[in-house]
Design brief:
Layout (H helix, E strand, L loop, with lengths): L10 H5 L50 E2 L7 E5 L21 E6 L9 E4 L9 E5 L10 E10 L2 E2 L6 E4 L10 E6 L3 E6 L11 E7 L5 E3 L16 E6 L17 E7 L12 E2 L16 E2 L8 E5 L8 H4 L6 E6 L9 E4 L9 E5 L6 E10 L2 E2 L6 E4 L9
Antiparallel strand pairs: 1-2, 2-5, 3-4, 3-6, 6-7, 6-8, 9-10, 10-13, 11-12, 11-14, 14-15, 16-17, 17-20, 18-19, 18-21, 21-22, 21-23
């Protein structure tokens, strides 16, 4: 020391928490020196105001390795950059010494029981992204692997990061098969074949319907939420026909219904939803209009009875049936008391599809009024014009 005029102290001695100095990371290392001869010790020099800062091994990484979005059930891509807060003031996460290596470790699927180095321990490497190849036959799909990382500088290895669980899985595959169908005249059913889950069970579907503005809007009332594991393929959901003419889709009568669907698993939503499927044409969501006038059957009308027929409305006649099949015909009459109101003869209390009706026990020569209306799944329509009839027959041929 006398000859070289300097001395060396390991940095670890200066920074050891239990040591005599316990200098914190980044603190200026200051010293003073005095000379001694046979007479005694001289005065100390002034403390230095510049020089080397206290350094340590790297600190614990601020975050664990991260799963890269390119990961699949066949390969896991891990990103583990070592972040250092830029100065001034510097964050000193690197121990104020250049990072010489990054070490990535994994547990090989042992739930953390054992660990193995993937990269960076020997030889050193500053690579901060690594791909772990899994079984090419997909047999590792759905397995969970733990990863952790640490950094190395001139003062040694730093603390290990927190562990992170990475699932060997990918986003669900694109849904290939979708259909639309009408159920019971009032419900539209969207169906699709569940896609390949790619290592993680499907936990939700998102149905989007094309609106009148040309944009796809998500349906959240009936076709959203967690998947019921008891439901078998194909998955499906239903909406009332009336929903499509209301907000947010506002489709006009006769517009085609178009939808698409996406699946979600633990990794996330499919990046690309299913191809759009266009199906049936929405029907009018309204009751029928007023039906055609009643027909009086003169051949079966006499002094004691009147027979009337309600014209049939065909299922194919959407203009007359409101776009939905007729479920009941209701005939009413005034009981011979004109102006006092009508009461139902048939079709009101229970559905009726009989078109002809004979009303017997009438008073000869009395006048009666009849009317009718029809019902589809959306309700009763307007009344027909009133038919006035007399319980009588034409006079006999004169002698």
């Amino acid at each position: 020391m006398l000859a070289s005029m300097f001395c060396e102290i390991p940095m670890s001695v200066l920074t050891a928490p239990a040591g005599p100095f316990a200098l914190p990371l980044g603190r200026l290392i200051q010293a003073k020196v005095a000379a001694r001869n046979s007479v005694g010790l001289g005065a100390y020099s002034a403390l230095n105001t510049a020089g080397v800062l206290a350094q340590t091994a790297p600190l614990k990484p601020a975050s664990p390795p991260q799963r890269n979005a390119a990961s699949t059930q066949y390969a896991l891509v891990l990103d583990y950059p070592f972040a250092v807060t830029p100065g001034p003031p510097a964050g000193y996460e690197d121990g104020d010494s250049t990072i010489l290596s990054l070490n990535l470790q994994w547990d090989r699927g042992t739930a953390g029981a054992t660990w193995a180095t993937l990269l960076g321990e020997s030889p050193h490497s500053t690579t901060d992204s690594y791909t772990v190849q899994l079984a090419s036959d997909g047999s590792d799909a759905g397995k969970t692997y733990k990863f952790r990382a640490r950094a190395y500088n001139a003062h040694g290895w730093g603390a290990l990061s927190d562990e992170v669980d990475v699932l060997a899985a990918d986003y669900p595959a694109v849904i290939a098969s979708t259909t639309i169908e009408l159920v019971d005249d009032v419900q539209v059913q969207f169906s699709w074949q569940s896609p390949e889950p790619n290592g993680s069970p499907i936990d939700a579907y998102k149905v989007e319907i094309l609106s009148s503005t040309g944009s796809y809007l998500e349906e959240t009332a009936q076709c959203s939420g967690a998947v019921d594991p008891t439901v078998s393929d194909p998955a499906s959901c239903r909406l009332p026909m009336a929903a499509f003419s209301a907000d947010p889709w506002n489709l006009a009568p006769g517009s085609p219904i178009t939808f698409r669907v996406a699946a979600r698993n633990q990794i996330g939503w499919q990046a690309v939803p299913s191809s759009s499927t266009t199906g049936l044409v929405p029907v009018e969501t309204a009751p029928p209009g007023a039906p055609a006038p009643l027909v009086l059957d003169a051949s079966q009308t006499n002094e004691g009875q009147i027979r009337v027929t309600m014209p049939e409305i065909l299922d194919s006649d959407s203009a007359a049936n409101g776009g939905s099949a007729i479920l009941s015909y209701s005939l009413e009459w005034d009981s011979g008391f004109t102006g006092t109101g009508f009461t139902a003869l048939t079709g009101a209390a229970s559905d009726n599809l009989e078109l002809a009706r004979v009303v017997a026990g009438l008073s000869a020569g009395a006048a009666y009024e009849f009317r009718y209306r029809v019902r589809n799944v959306y309700g009763w329509g307007d009344y027909s014009p009133v038919l006035a009839a007399i319980a009588a027959t034409p006079p006999a041929t004169p002698a």
